[in-house]
Every structure is written in structure tokens, then in C-alpha cells.
Amino acid sequence: MKRPSLRTLTILFLAALLVVSCSPGAVATPTSVPSGEATATSPQSVAASPTDTAAPAEVSPTSASRGAPLKIEFWTLLTGNLADTLDKMVQEYNASQTNVQIVNVNQGGYAQIQQKMLAAVAAGNPPVISMMDYKNVPYYAQAGVLEPLDSYETPEDVQDFIPGLLADLTVGGKLYGLPFNRSTQGFYYNKDLFRQAGLDPEKPPTTWDELLQDSEAIQKLGSDYYGIYATGNMQWFFEAYVYQAGGQFSDADCNFTFNDEYGQKAAQYLQDLVYKYKVALIPSVLTGTFDQKEVEFVNGKVGMTRDSTALNSYIGSVVNFDWSFAPLPAGPAGQFVTSGGANLVISAKASPEEKQAAWDFIRWLTDTQNSASFSQATGYLPTRYSVTKLPEMQDFYKTHPTWQTSVDELQYVHPTSCGVLNIPSWETTMNGAMDQILVNHEDVKTVLDQTVTELNASIADARNNGTLIKR
Amino acid sequence: MALRKPALLRSPLRRADYLTAILFLAPSLIVFGVFVYYALGFNLYLSFTSWNFLSSTKTFIGLENYQRMIADPRFWKVIVNTFYFSIATVAFSLLFGLVLALILNQKMSGRGLLRVIFFSPYITTTSALALLWIWIFDPNYGLMNYALQLVGIGGPRWLTSTTWAMPALIIMTVWKTSGYAMVIFLAGLTNIPHELREAAQIDGAGPWATLWKITLPLLSPTTFFILFTLLISAFQTFDQVAVMTAGGPINATNVLNYYIYEQAFINYKAGYAASLAVVFFLILLGLTILQLRASRRWVYQP
Fold first, then answer.
1. B258 chain-A contacts, CB cut-off 8 A
2. Global confidence as pTM
């Protein structure tokens, strides 16, 4: 037959539709995810009670007098020992009073919670409380998804939080979240390897030059020894390196500027560690868990590895050598780090009762005492000044000097640049650029110019649409 | 093969018949309607909008997403990657599947166990296998480079090399899907009448001639089926990319399905991702039609 009939084509078309959308591989098709997620989350929200229309009838004063607690859904993203710590705190809160029951739903990680939040917001059904990556807060706040917290808090509340951490959560002069599990950057190092290389294990490098010298000393131990890794989450660290070099990551209009001389100096330094001095190792895998990405460090072949302060509670369980933690070394312009981690936000869609209950809970979770015990158990930063002044914390720091390191670093925390806050694709774009420079040995200036041009086109789009986020 | 309408469709149906038919079809119609066709239609609509998932307004921008796609060098890189990955995995899976099936179709001891071993990767969760293969591809401690070293080859830094990351994913995927091809080929082999091969042997055909003139032609419907199913699943590859490389380094392993995910859920570009999904759908549709038409020429039909 020459020409398939219309009916054959129609059947083919429908069959292809089925094949495309029904096969198990289609997990990531955007059409299927939101609908699937929406149905997956709605039973939870129904069980966890009122997120929308049913709320006013259910949560009348009678429910309180009957003693049925108001259920508040709380999405979390921590994993492993960190998640266990948070679970215990929620249980403690639920046991401490009878009016409100916090139902925590662990979404399994930063990437996962981000996808599920998008789907939940699109479906009009976000959780009352969620943990949220600091970079996402301004974006969600601007879309009207988050409740401004200014009317809840008291001035003493805000003054006590570390200003650098609050700055990332403030959009248009309003505060949209409380810092919770916040971390900053430093590097873990192998003290045994420092000793073998003839270095003082109590004196980790404090400048770019010292880092290079120490790395060279470690590399003399053998051809498969390296001072540090070439990359690994470098899109997060690079901003700090630009500040250390003396630059600004983006200007007052949020246009990226890291292709200037300072950005080039930072990128060149990192590239030289790999190709000129050959002391930095390109990792075996660019994604994955700590013991996969940083397996050579775990095996005692790489002396230092840049990572988050949050690994302080974890690293001892995967390495069997004497280790310590130090702040990122200072560059020509001094010592700077940026922060990472998540915050607590409240849905603007929740009912007033839910919002108040949610506020009471997140206020409790971030109070001085709880921040102190959470920081001790996890290695995350103390988010309040009052935490570091507690006598018990002072004692704790004496026995856990690496925790003290992260406290010392608080003074160097630089707020995230407004360019970064505006571009969700910043991370993938920057990740590619860092791989071009550090893995593929491409010309620093060319790559930075291209990257800045591309990112600034997105900034220009946002400006033209009137959606540019400014603090 | 012009189909004549069955008698039932030619005669006018009574209303009750329609109702009965609709009643029986309703459950699947509703499920497919809501979860498949509605979603597809909505996706098509989204592809003409600019939307960030969060905003309550979806701005209609016509074909702008498609224009951007054509001008997006990453999109073309992703398309090339997708075809590279799909063609290579399908070709090698077919080859290894056929060889395994021919070997394991012989009478030999332990062949049941061997079949199970070769098939088991196919039914194991891809993301779990991907974690395993990250270790195998580790340049310093991995089995792959250890094996290469034994024959005197210094292996590459597989997953962080723009050249070798894609071959690494292809090797892992071929290892996983060859078992599937093998099982279907085995089923196809048992369907080939014994008499044909015997007759050929009586006429003096050696093993090679029997393979080329009898077995492979008679196996072609099976080969076609495997080609069709593997190609479609190769185009939808996502898990191993997400776990082993996240599309990197520098998009060297970014395939269409992962790129859609990245645009939608990491970059918040729902409209652009939707337009990519439409293109994805059209490619698969085109392939399906092409394969069905081509198959008529070379599939053996008794």
C-alpha cells in the first residue's frame, strides 16, 4: 500500500503518545511530573489537614477545645544523621504542647524538595512550612508564594540573627524566612598527610600562596598524591574566590561582572593549581556522594578538600585519619566566604491559624537553645549571636575546635550577589564554565566572557519583564 | 493490506451498543484522558508560554520558545548527544544480545543460570546500577581501568572527560540492555522451525551460511521488535545521566530527556522545557513511523 490511511496514522499517533508517556523512562517529562506529584502530595495534605478550602470549617475554636491538634505539614530536606536530629526536635515540639502537631515530610534532598515545591505550588497546594535553599527564597518570595514574616517577629528576634544570613532572605525590605541549617565554606584536611609532608598540622594554609606551597609539599610524597581538588561544587566556591581576589560578583544593577580582572585572577589561580603547578586533582566523578566525589581524600591521597561546614558531624565516620577543618584561605583582598544551606519559610496560602502555628514552631526551632543543640549535633552554623555566647557552647567549642572554626568564619560571610539570586540557571551555567576552565583547560577570559554574556542576557530579560529581584 | 471495516462498524449501531461500549471503555478513557492526553495537551499549551512554575500568570509568547531553541547551541549539542547515545547503545545491545542468544541457545550445562545472570542487569534499578558503575569507572580504584591496565592500556578519566563520559554511559547501558535483547532473541530463535535448518544442512550449508541465510532472516521480526523498543527507551534515557554525570562535563552527556528536566526543574523554565518536550515527542513519533514503514521492506513475513 502506498499511502497510510488517515485512520492508520491516527492509531499510530495515539500509540506513539502512549509509548512516550507511559514508559517508565518518562519520569522526567515535565508534563507527567507535576500531575504525578500533585496526586502524590495531595493525600498527605489531606491527612495532614487543612491547606485550603477545608481549613476554616475544620480549624474552628472547637477543635482546640476538643483537644484535636492542628496539623501542620513541614517539608524537610536533610538526610542521614542530620535528618535524624531534626526528626527528634519535631517530636520534642509535638510532645511539648497539645494544640499543634507538626507533621514532617522528608523530601530527600535539595534537588528533590525543589522539584516537589515547584509541583506543589503549581498545583496550588504547597506545605505550610518548608525548608528552602537560600538561593530560592527571593525567587519564591517574589512570586508571592511565601508569607512575609515582618508582622510576626519582634525586633529582638531579628537583631540576634547573623545579618549576613538574614540578608539572603530579605526581598524588597521584607523578611521571608528564618535561617535554619546554614553552612559556610572551608576545607577539610588530612593532618597525618601534613605531618608526612613535613608541614605543621596545626597550621593549615591561610593564604592562596600558602595553599599552593603546602600542596606542593604534599605532592612530593608521590606521583598519586595531590594537595587539593581542582573542582567539586566549584560553582558555589567561585563567588567567594572572586571576593577574595577583590572583585564584586555582580554590580548594583545585578549585572554579572566576574569576567573583570578580579574574576580572571581568581579563575586563573584555580586553573594554575591544576595545570601550571599540577597540585590539584580533577575528581573522578563530578556528581554523587562525598565518598564518591572525594574518594582520593578519603583514601589519604589528597591533602585538602573544600566543602561545607555541615560535614563536620559526618566526616569522622568516613575517614580513618586525623583530620581538621580550616577556613578558606584569604586571597589578595582578604578573607571571604559565601553561605549555603536552607531556611524555614511559611506558605502565603495557609490560613491565619496555620500561619501563626507555623510561626510559633519555626520561632521555637530557631531559638537560642534549639539552635545550639542543632548546631552541636550537625556542624551547621549557629544562626544567632546568642548561641555562641552560651556557656555550654563555649565548653563544646573547647572540645570540638572545628566547630569553633565555622563560628570564626561567620565574620567573613559575604551575602550572595543579587545576580545569583535572580538566575535559577546560574548553577548549571556556572558549573559548565568551571568545568571548561578546570577540567577542559580552556582559556579563562574567553570562558568567563561567554558566561557573563549569557547570564546577563537572563538578567536583561528579568529587567525587561519587571521581575528583577533587588534587596 | 487495506483493511476492510469489520461488520460491526459498518452496520449502524444501536444506542444501547454505544452506551455499553462507552461504559466498558470509560475507566481507561478517563485514566488516559486525565493523566496522558490532558497532560500532553497542557504541555503543548505551555510550550507557547513563558512561565517560571511559580508565577500565577503564564505569558503567551507564540513560537518564541521554538525560535530560541533553534538558536540555542546547547539544544543542538543535546540532540547530537541523544542520537549518538541512542544509536550506539541500540547497535551494541543488538549485537551482544544476538551473540549471547546464539551461544546460550546451544545445549550446554549451566545455560539457565547464565541466562539469568545476563538478564539480571535489565531488571535492576538503573540508578542503583549507575552508583555501582561510578565505582567501576573510577580512574584510580575502578575495575575498568584496572582491566585496561592488565592489557597495557592507561584508561581515561571516564566520567570527567568530555570525550569519554558518553562512551562510559554507553558501555554501562549496553551492559544493562544486552540481556533484554538476548531474552527476546532466544524467544525468536525457538520460533524458527527446526526443519528449515536441517534442510539447509542437508543441502550442504555450513554454520555460517545457516546463520546468514536461515537464522538471521527468520529472526528479523524479532530484531525489528528489539530495535523498536530499545531505540525508544534509549531516547528516554535519564537515570544514568542524572546519577553518573548530571549531563556533564560541559554538557558532554546531556541528552534530551535530561535537558528537559534541567530546564524545567533546575532552571525554572517551564515554557521552554515544554517546547523541548514537544520536539522530543515529534522525534519519537517520526522514528516510530519511519521504523514501521521500513520494517515492511525487510521483515520476513511467512
1. 28
2. 0.79
